[in-house]
Amino acid sequence: MLTKTKDSDYPMAPSEVQDSVEDDTPSNQTIVTPPIPDDIDLDDPILYLSRELTWLAFNRRVLREAEDPRNPLLERIKFLAIVSNNLDEFFMKRIGGLKQQIAAGVHTPSLDGRTPLQQLNECQSAVRGFIREQQRIYGELMLALDEYDIRIARHADLQEDARERLREHFRANIFPMLTPLAMDPAHPFPFISNLTLNLLVTLRYPGGNEVYMARVKVPVNKDVSKRLISVDGTHTYVTLEDLIVNNLDMLFPGMEIVSCALFRITRNAIVEPDVEAANDLLEMIESELRERHFAPIVRLEVQPGMEPVHRGMLAAELGLNEEEDVIEAEGMMALSNLFEIASIDRPELHDKTHRPVDHPLLANDRRNIFHIIRENGPILLQHPYQPFSTSVERFLRTASEDPKVLAIKMTLYRTSAGAILDSLIQAARNGKQVAVLVELKARFDEAANIKWARRLEAEGIHVNYGVMGLKTHSKLIFVVRRDYSQLRRYYHIGTGNYHSGTAKLYTDLGMLGCDEDIGQDLTELFNYLTGYSPPPSYRKILAAPYNLKRAIIDKINREIEHHKREDNGLIQMKMNALEDPDITRALYKASRAGVQVDLIIRDTCRFRPGLPGISERARVVSIVGRFLEHARIIYFRNGGDEEYYIGSADMMRRNLDSRVEVHAPVENPELRQELRLILDVQFADSRSAWDMDANGDYTQRTPEDDSKKGAQETLIGVAEKRLAAAAKHKEKKVRSRLLSHFQWRLRDKNL
Q: Which residues lie within the region annotated Disordered (predicted)?
């Protein structure tokens, strides 16, 4: 028996909006959906939820993790910081994009029937309620931290000797970095950087009446100062801005400080580069980065109590609507800096440390990894349950050192300094042909990717920037090796980036293999990425923007036909987002025909399950846990001839139509069992899962027994058991037994 926690402040269907945007108070009432006509057109906007609002609803689920007392205290702080970071990105990308559309005079409704202006109004309304909830939870967590002698204190509340020591710290380490900028007719309003903290200071000469104004940038920077400054090495902290405010007499000696208030701006991250003016793609992206620095401002956050005239002045100078675009931030502004608190070394306040365990086939076999793949068949990797270093990095490192490897080709969307780049460079130095496609347009990673690209080019590696007009989002490593008297192609196909940091935080899948047909497909794909024309077809892989969407829709339609004959149609998909209208429409069609449609969608989801006569045989589940769900799995029962795919693409229009993406079939029976186990465990989760209803509301599953594990904790245990069993040569039996166990649990009415 499960109790439920409702995520009730959820977006409404277009027909239900009415005047709701005028009231930004979160609703605690379930939305009443109008009845769905039997003959409804599958293009009707009422069937589709808002992309922006469903994304906000996902972050409300993450915020719930910050509130949930079942989570250790510092993990709750971490979730609060994540939500703040996500909200910044939402304003930079989604709000910024909507404002661009409105400025361009776009009135065309989106798939869910909302114009850009309607979307903007509803998003702003939802965000206000979201922020109030965020600040409430922040206050509760600060009280909880205080019980463990962890606190963010006011400078004024510290003992005098502590304040003196902080003043010396300020004099030596902060004061030299401060640059007050006057604002008067002789000093125009200064440039304000994106997401920086700033102090608006008003002051006057002693005995004078005229008030002067200055801006002081708070220098939060890893090379200058953290946001939170420890008091005497303890876990009592003061904010950097509080320290500055209480030492302004150093900055403005002899002046009387009249007022001081904190503010922060957010700029639009969507900048259209001047394609015609750029000589090449690298130059164009560098130009875009420069333009983003000066991009239009979409949000102003101010400290409560700021003088109304100052608030109005800032809004006017920044080109904002004071009523719509200015947000008062109660408590601490820029809560993403709470990662500094979340990283405190107090094991009892964190989740149990997770240590990935090696894949059973790789753990105790130190042979050349290509021999292992060739002799054992494909290997399915599951991160972060299995280490990135002993699997993917080992694969690439071996390729760089193996004298029989002739060529390495790879796509890089996001990466980090370290083993991946070092192996590519070593391969080039060892005389191998190395070609790397670096995606320069990876949002917020453009500068890093430019740096990596130039470093690789300096080592003589062939660096390509992809296909004009398309973003390359696929996750591929392709190795050509001379095995005996023939060339054999080895590969890694993944769902996540080649980034050692995120591989510890995101749940992703990867497949190592040497299938001849997939190898030939990847040969042709890389020839296209570095050359020109795409192949007319592929043997096994599904690749966007060419055949991926069409193939998925065809397979959905095929499942409908199987269901008509056998009455057992089943489609299961796990992904980050479902936004593409054609895929959503096809899933409605399948569900309407009686096919069971099971979806695990992390965030954005336009599909509405449980609609009478439309999607009664469908369910949507969202998993929120200690790791960010990032893997993509697609399954079709196909009349008993089952199909599984893993790959890089979410079911979003941009991914399917404007990106190079790859999904590959998983044909090995043992690897299919592993994928089946993942799906069954997540659908059976009674701790971390949220169920969407027909209205678009999410309800959290909460077991009566708090000792129940979530899907991620369960899969940690599965990985550990598999490795332990491998030493006893029982791994196949354990996998089969685990699969049977979770299939039995799925039939349990209590789940």
A: 1-36
Q: Which residue segments constitute the domains of the chain, with CATH numbers given?
A: 51-270+289-342 (3.30.1840.10), 369-539 (3.30.870.10), 543-713 (3.30.870.10)
Peptide bond into 176 cis (omega under 30): no
Whether residue 499 is annotated as binding a ligand: the answer is: no
Distances (CA, A) of 709 to 7, 625, 626, 748: 21, 11, 12, 16
Average the pLDDT over 731-739 and give the result: 58
Over residues 318-367, the pLDDT tens digits come to 999 999 999 999 889 999 999 999 999 999 999 999 999 999 999 989 89
DSSP state of 336: G
Please identify every residue annotated as catalytic: 473
CB 23 within 8 A of CB 586: no
Beta strands in 453-580 (DSSP E): 462-464, 471-472, 476-483, 486-494, 506-513, 542-544, 570-575
- Shortest CA distance to 605 belongs to which of 112, 121, 113, 119? 112
Written as six digits, the tokens of 365 are: 């076999």
Alpha helices in 359-430 (DSSP H): 360-363, 369-376, 392-401, 419-429
Nearest to 71 by CA among 3, 140, 10, 9: 140
Helix/strand/coil (H, E, C) string of 242-259?
HHHHCCHHHHCCCCEEEE
151 is in an annotated binding site: no
Higher pLDDT, 25 or 412: 412
Per the CB < 8 A criterion, the answer to whether 611 and 42 are in contact is no
Q: DSSP code of 296?
A: P
Integer CA distances (angstroms), 222 to 108, 219, 260, 340, in order: 44, 9, 25, 11
**414 labeled part of a ligand binding site:** yes
Q: Mind listing the pLDDT tens digit for each residue in 449-506? A: 788 888 999 999 999 887 878 899 999 999 999 998 899 999 999 999 999 999 999 9
**Does residue 644 have a known ligand-binding role?**
no
Q: Is the peptide bond before 545 cis (omega within 30 degrees of 0)?
A: yes
For residue 731, give the 3-state DSSP assignment: helix
Q: How many other CB atoms are there within 10 angstroms of residue 736's CB atom?
A: 13
Tell how strand 596-601 and strand 618-623 pair up: parallel
Tokens encoding 24: 């930004």
267 annotated among ligand-binding-site residues: no
Q: What is the mean pLDDT of residues 600-624?
A: 96
Mean pLDDT of 668-692: 97
Q: What is the pLDDT of residues 44-68, one digit of tens each?
A: 999 999 999 999 999 999 999 999 9
* Cβ atoms of residues 478 and 523 within 8 Å: yes
Please say if the pLDDT value at position 631 is more than 70.
yes
Q: Is 565 labelled as part of a ligand binding site?
A: no
